[in-house]
């Protein structure tokens, strides 16, 4: 009987996993057989070699005599160190003219009985507590070997003993030296798993603190994590599916490969970077499911794969193409004669060639069609296994394939849009000649609507020929349009088309593969309100917001100069400090004329201000004639169009102004901020704003300032792809202080602990000791213990408020930097505390408040803010008490914000006259000696009862003076409670501070 998680100590967890693997055909390894010097299980290795290749081993024994095992090991060691584990497993080694196989893989055809017999002789072993080092007695929890060669390392943790996968990850980073032979990149183990009973993470390269782990989870309800497993643990799939013998050998043979990329360092020097690619769970899942379905149904079925940006579509397509090209049905006949990959990604073309060469070990499997129709016709007729071509050639390909009715084809269609969408529009190449911005925006919008849409062209070409029984289509996209779903989707039980496989934007965000671009989305109207309040409000001490951010209450839709000033100043105040000072911005304009005028305005303003750290580029198609002068992209940038992506990637340029070009398919991870001055909707809105979502080291968030669109319209556009409510604008920065007070009241942390935590946290890194790290953990752990003692409701409330505080604080810093040391210290502390708070089973944190940023998931925001510059001294400041010292803001501002909040929440239209009614009630409270006494002698919680009772009486007394307002207070309980809640703290503080 399977053990319950409660019974599983770490050792018990190991036994549980081992038991599953042994039952499925694994061999139990003996840690004593592990040779530390060679990092190989020598007993299993020679057992396999003697069993499967006895004649070859006899020949080597004759050559090397009694030293033969040492000599074979030495040769194998040299080959592993030179060629790597993956290549050696697949292609064996030569020793003194003798070729040795190190593993056998399952043949595509069942007719190859000899290979099937050899495949069954592989010795897959699981060994526990392997002491791997010649320098110390450290051991790993579990090692999986193929014929004695180490391929998988597992560190297992059980949350019921107080440890999780995060502790396993720390163990890899701190205690597993990358210099140990077992852990050396490419040479031995291929993948390292950090696993607990809830989640699994993996990496293919250990490099100390820089090690990067990726989630290896199934996903749960459209988000991260794993679904409940009624028959066992949430992570059972790892040993029950992924690490099963057939699955593991399939991954080693047909999935794992080494990706080589040419990169440039900060100085512009080119270097080669290698990465061992091990498939993520959803990649394995989609490729295997598509393969199984195509095998079962044969040719003639369509499939839609909806995988978000950040899902690794390039690799998924490469693997799928290779597997479909080798797919046989139950009668051992090939299911497809050729696989055709349609893509505009140059990277996919090269990667297909490279990865498939590694998987097949021969050239000529992939042919690129880049010449003419004859080249394509020859490739199709000769049965080239994988053909790669562009979207432009798609209609011709479909026509040709349709003519070859006796041949069967798999057509894989990559995301049907590219970064140069504007270049495909013939009419956008014509000269745009108008001096009116309104007219230019209208003309370009009409052209965009009419012109080349690659996705539409694909659908049109398929519809033109009708359903073709000799073609199966496999369409990959992050943002399918309705027509695409109809063409390629799988009909569900509800009669509607659905994706065959889904990896949602929400899951990609929650798993950290892309950033949530809507987390800091703000319309100009809201931006202005917030910036103005922060600037005017003495509560936000030393606010740095420049007057330029708040000069314009109302913007003329086409006032380029106003918007230019706002954007440049925001960029210099906020954006340029992000990503270690390398952050870039994109300005999305309404037309090519807008782009030209913005370029001129930006450059003029930057020059006038004398800013030396900001340069712009512009991107648009064709020629724009303005006031008799003709402008082109290359003329304004002073270099060729094709050079723009590479030039923009350098530190010379910070801002890219675009008209249609680069709104889709453009990957520049340093893009942090987007200024939108164009009407966006539907898929176009999602694709445009998603230019910001790529991750890179040091990039923790993004920012969007939208001059044109409404928040609710953007939310509506994202809904189909995100699966949660995402945009909720914030208009009241002072709520930070309210939440700060509420959080203090829970008693989960103590002010002294918070100060000690921050004093250590802000020590220079080179001064921090291991003891400091231990103290930081202790200061969080004591708070966790207090949290555990709270009632369930209060636990939820605290988590919700803490999450809301982190979101709101980081959001407001995006609007304009301000300094409040206490708020920042709380922010840093809560960021770490939330990570350690226990998550209740099935619970979701509800962030409900009238001005809260409402998001479905708790995501890590940046650790420390650039707004708090290094020269700011961290001085412990006296905590804000409920005494009168806390009330800094002017009464007028406070009252107006109450009325604004009530209007916003309840859709009412109360005015400044109604503010006086609230003020009168406050004066009535101050004149009530009994109430003043109760405020001075009670805590705020005890004072609440007296306050609420008196409140109703004061309202009734004032009825005659403002009938409409006070009637609403008496008649509407929710409205009354909201007003009382808003006034409670302020009244308590005011009465407390009154001098007798």
Pick out its properties.
globular; seven-stranded mixed sheet; 36 helices; seven-stranded parallel sheet; 996 residues; alpha/beta
Structural overview:
By secondary structure, the chain is an alpha/beta fold. 45% of the residues lie in helices and 14% in strands. The chain has 36 helices and 31 strands. The strands form eight sheets. A seven-stranded mixed sheet has the order 1-6-7-8-9-10-11, sandwiched between helices. α24 links the parallel β30 and β31. α27 packs across α30 and α35 packs across α36. The longest helix has 24 residues. The chain is globular and about 110 Å long.
How is the topology of this model organized?
Blueprint: H1 10-23, E1 27-28, E2 34-35, E3 40-41, H2 42-52, H3 54-64, H4 68-83, H5 85-91, E4 93-95, E5 98-100, H6 113-120, E6 124-131, E7 139-146, E8 149-156, H7 165-175, E9 191-195, E10 200-203, E11 214-215, H8 236-242, H9 245-254, E12 257-264, E13 270-277, H10 281-297, E14 302-307, H11 313-325, E15 338-342, H12 346-360, E16 366-368, H13 373-382, E17 386-389, H14 394-403, E18 409-413, E19 432-433, H15 437-450, H16 454-465, E20 471-477, H17 482-488, E21 490-491, E22 497-498, E23 501-503, H18 505-510, E24 521-523, H19 524-536, H20 560-573, E25 584-589, H21 592-609, E26 616-619, E27 623-626, E28 629-632, H22 633-637, H23 644-649, E29 655-658, E30 671-677, H24 682-689, E31 703-706, H25 711-722, H26 735-745, H27 751-761, H28 770-788, H29 792-815, H30 821-836, H31 891-906, H32 912-927, H33 929-937, H34 940-957, H35 963-971, H36 973-993
Parallel strand pairs: 1-6, 8-9, 14-20, 14-23, 15-17, 15-18, 16-17, 18-20, 19-27, 24-31, 25-29, 25-30, 26-29, 30-31
Antiparallel strand pairs: 2-3, 4-5, 6-7, 7-8, 9-10, 10-11, 12-13, 21-22, 27-28
């Amino acid at each position: 009987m399977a053990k319950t998680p409660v019974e599983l100590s770490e050792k018990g967890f190991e036994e549980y996993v081992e038991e599953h693997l042994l039952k499925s055909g694994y061999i139990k390894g003996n840690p004593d057989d592990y040779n530390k010097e060679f990092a190989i299980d020598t007993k299993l290795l020679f057992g396999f070699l003697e069993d499967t290749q006895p004649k070859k081993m006899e020949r080597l024994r004759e050559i090397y005599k009694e030293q033969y095992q040492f000599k074979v090991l030495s040769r194998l060691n040299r080959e592993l160190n030179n060629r790597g584990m993956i290549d050696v497993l697949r292609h064996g080694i030569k020793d003194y003219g003798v070729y040795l196989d190190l593993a056998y893989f399952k043949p595509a055809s069942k007719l190859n009985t000899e290979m099937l017999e050899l495949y069954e002789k592989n010795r897959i072993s699981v060994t526990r507590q392997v002491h791997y080092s010649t320098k110390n007695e450290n051991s790993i929890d579990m090692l999986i070997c193929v014929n004695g060669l180490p391929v998988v390392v597992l560190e297992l943790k059980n949350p019921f003993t107080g440890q999780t996968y995060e502790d396993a990850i720390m163990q890899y980073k701190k205690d597993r030296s990358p210099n140990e032979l077992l852990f050396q990149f490419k040479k031995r183990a291929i993948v390292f798993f950090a696993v607990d009973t809830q989640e699994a993470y993996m990496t293919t390269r250990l490099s100390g603190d820089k090690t990067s782990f990726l989630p290896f989870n199934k996903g749960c309800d459209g988000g991260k994590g794993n679904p409940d497993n009624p028959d066992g643990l949430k992570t059972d799939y790892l040993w029950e599916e992924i690490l099963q013998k057939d699955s593991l050998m399939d991954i080693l043979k047909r999935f794992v490969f080494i990706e080589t990329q040419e990169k440039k360092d900060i100085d512009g020097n080119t270097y080669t970077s290698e990465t061992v690619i091990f498939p993520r769970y959803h990649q394995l899942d989609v490729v295997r499911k598509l393969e199984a379905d195509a095998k079962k149904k044969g040719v003639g079925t369509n499939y839609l794969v909806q995988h978000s940006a950040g899902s690794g579509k390039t690799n998924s397509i490469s693997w799928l193409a290779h597997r479909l090209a080798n797919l046989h049905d139950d009668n051992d006949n090939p299911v497809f004669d050729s696989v055709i990959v349609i893509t505009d990604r140059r990277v996919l073309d090269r990667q297909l060639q490279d990865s498939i060469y590694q998987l097949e070990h021969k050239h000529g499997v992939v042919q690129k069609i880049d010449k003419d129709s004859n080249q394509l016709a020859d490739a199709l007729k000769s049965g080239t296994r994988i053909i790669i071509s562009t979207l432009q050639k798609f209609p011709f390909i479909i026509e040709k394939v349709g003519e070859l009715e006796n041949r069967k084809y798999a057509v894989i269609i990559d995301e049907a849009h590219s970064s140069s969408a504007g270049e495909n529009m013939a009419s956008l190449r014509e000269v745009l000649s108008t001096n009116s911005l309104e007219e230019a925006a209208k003309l370009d919008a009409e052209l965009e609507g009419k012109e080349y849409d690659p996705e539409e062209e694909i659908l049109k070409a398929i519809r033109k020929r009708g359903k073709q029984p000799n073609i199966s289509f496999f369409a990959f996209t992050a943002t399918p349009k309705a027509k695409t779903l109809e063409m390629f989707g799988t009909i569900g039980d509800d009669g509607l088309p659905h994706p065959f496989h889904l990896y949602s934007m929400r899951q990609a965000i929650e798993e950290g593969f892309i950033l949530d671009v809507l987390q800091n989305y703000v319309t100009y109207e809201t931006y202005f309100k917030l910036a103005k309040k922060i600037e005017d409000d003495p509560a936000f001490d030393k606010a740095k917001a420049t007057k330029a951010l708040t000069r314009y209450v109302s913007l003329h839709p086409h006032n380029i100069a106003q918007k230019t000033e706002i954007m440049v100043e925001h960029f210099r105040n906020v954006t340029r400090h992000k990503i270690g000072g390398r952050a870039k911005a994109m300005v999305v304009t309404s037309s090519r004329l807008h782009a030209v005028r913005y370029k001129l305005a930006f450059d003029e303003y930057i020059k006038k201000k004398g800013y030396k750290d900001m340069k712009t580029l512009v991107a648009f198609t064709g020629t724009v004639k303005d006031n008799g002068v003709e402008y082109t992209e290359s003329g304004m940038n002073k270099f060729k169009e094709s050079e723009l992506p590479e030039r923009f990637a350098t530190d010379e340029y910070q801002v890219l102004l675009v008209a249609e070009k680069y709104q889709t398919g453009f990957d520049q991870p340093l893009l942090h901020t987007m200024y939108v001055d164009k009407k966006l909707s539907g898929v176009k809105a999602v694709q445009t704003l998603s230019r910001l979502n790529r991750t890179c080291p040091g990039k923790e968030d993004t920012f969007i300032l939208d001059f044109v669109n409404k928040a609710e319209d953007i939310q509506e556009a994202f809904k189909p792809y995100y699966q949660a409510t995402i945009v909720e604008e914030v208009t009241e920065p002072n709520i930070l202080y309210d939440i700060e007070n509420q959080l203090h009241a829970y008693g989960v942390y103590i002010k002294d602990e918070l100060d000690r935590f921050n004093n250590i946290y802000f020590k220079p890194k080179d001064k921090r000791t291991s003891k400091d790290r231990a103290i930081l953990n202790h200061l969080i752990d004591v708070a966790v213990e207090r949290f555990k003692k709270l009632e369930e409701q209060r636990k939820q409330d605290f988590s919700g408020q803490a999450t809301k505080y982190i979101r709101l604080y980081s959001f407001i810093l995006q609007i304009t930097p301000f300094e409040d040391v206490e708020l920042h210290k709380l922010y840093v502390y809560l960021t770490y505390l939330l990570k350690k708070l226990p998550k209740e089973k099935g619970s979701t944190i509800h962030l409900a408040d009238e001005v809260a940023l409402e998001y479905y998931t708790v995501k890590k925001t940046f650790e420390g803010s650039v707004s708090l510059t290094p020269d700011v001294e961290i001085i412990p400041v006296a905590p804000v008490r409920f005494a009168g010292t806390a009330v800094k803001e002017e009464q007028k501002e406070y009252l107006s914000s109450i009325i604004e909040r009530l209007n916003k929440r309840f859709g009412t239209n109360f005015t400044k006259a109604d503010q006086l009614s609230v003020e009168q009630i406050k004066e009535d409270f101050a004149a009530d000696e009994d109430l003043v006494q109760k405020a001075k002698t009670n805590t705020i919680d005890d004072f609440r009862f007296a306050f609420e009772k008196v409140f109703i009486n004061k309202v009734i007394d004032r009825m005659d003076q403002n009938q409409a307002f006070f009637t609403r207070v008496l008649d509407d309980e929710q409205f009354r409670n909201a007003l009382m809640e808003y006034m409670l703290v302020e009244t308590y503080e005011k009465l407390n501070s009154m001098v007798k």
